[in-house]
Amino acid sequence: MIFDIVTIFPDLLDSPLNEGILRRARLKGQITTNIINLRDFADDPQTMTDDRPFGGGEGMVMKPEPLARAVKSQQNADGSTQAKVILLSPQGRSYNQKIAGELAGEQHLILVCGRYEGVDERFRAGYVHDELSLGDYILTGGELAAMVIVDSVTRLLPGVLGCSDSADKDTFSRNLLKHPQYTRPRVFEDQAVPEELLSGNHEQIETYRFLASVQRTLDRRPDLLKIESFSPSEIKLLRKHGLYEKVQMIQDVTPKR
User: Fold this and answer.
1) First CA to last CA distance, the chain
2) Is 90 a catalytic residue?
3) Looking at 24, 155, 174, 221, which residue is catalytic?
4) 114: three-class secondary structure by DSSP
5) H or E segment to which residue 187 belongs
6) Chain Cα centroid distance, residue 142
7) What is the pLDDT of residues 148-202, one digit of tens each?
8) SS3 of 122, please?
9) Which of the residues 65, 170, 196, 228 is marked catalytic?
10) Whether 178 contacts 166, CB under 8 Å
11) What is the pLDDT of residues 101-142, one digit of tens each?
């Protein structure tokens, strides 16, 4: 998979791409990352990539010509124009695990890092396929958002995590938070690991983890349960342990039978 990141601050991205899982995925050839310096595509001696907005107002706006040239250069680099162009901006749709899964099915992403008051609307309308935001807050630029996308998408690619179902059991792999995790020692500050996890009984362990996952979601993110569905066997477990009524109150639907 190819990630092209278009930015005016290329040095911001060096360290994250050379650490941990991303570094390993790059060395194995599972991903290719190209940092594209937008200033290389400016056509004036000052390498200007922004200018004042027509109509006046605060701040600066990123110029359309350098952005268009940068995107075209990467679309044509491998003889393909199938790259998906994504603008990182606070006005985009909110990024989540579902979108990460969608992007993991692409072969080539061009991530354009917005800055200042945004990009010229003509570039957005003519070149951008999708516009993504990390949430309802403002960053100084799209570089950190681009790295979040590279990281979250890369870990979903086959073989990157080295465990076939690791990503499938993450928080947000369904609309549930992941169950609490424990490791050695068995007792820490008078708190013992739950006995179910020490039983060696895989069915008992999975039951405990499922119920703990639902309880944690009820406690911390009940909004997620509004769109979650459960299998008949899961509903039976929830009823048995007094959780189904709580879930049902949040979902506000007719009881499933």
Assistant:
1) 44
2) yes
3) 155
4) coil
5) strand 187-188
6) 14
7) 999 999 999 999 998 655 676 676 778 999 999 999 999 999 999 999 999 999 9
8) helix
9) 170
10) no
11) 999 999 999 999 999 999 999 999 999 999 999 999 999 999
Active site residue 155: yes
Enter the pTM of the model: 0.87
Is 228 catalytic? The answer is no
Domain at 2-154, CATH from 3.40.1280.10, 1.20.120.680, 4.10.520.10, 3.60.130.10: 3.40.1280.10
Active site residue 117: yes
Tell me which of 90, 174, 228, 234 is the catalytic residue.
Answer: 90
pLDDT confidence band for 254 (50 / 70 / 90): very low
Q: Return residue ranges of the chain for CATH 3.40.1280.10.
A: 2-154
Average pLDDT (29-54) is: 96
Is the bond preceding 185 in cis, omega lying within 30 degrees of 0? yes
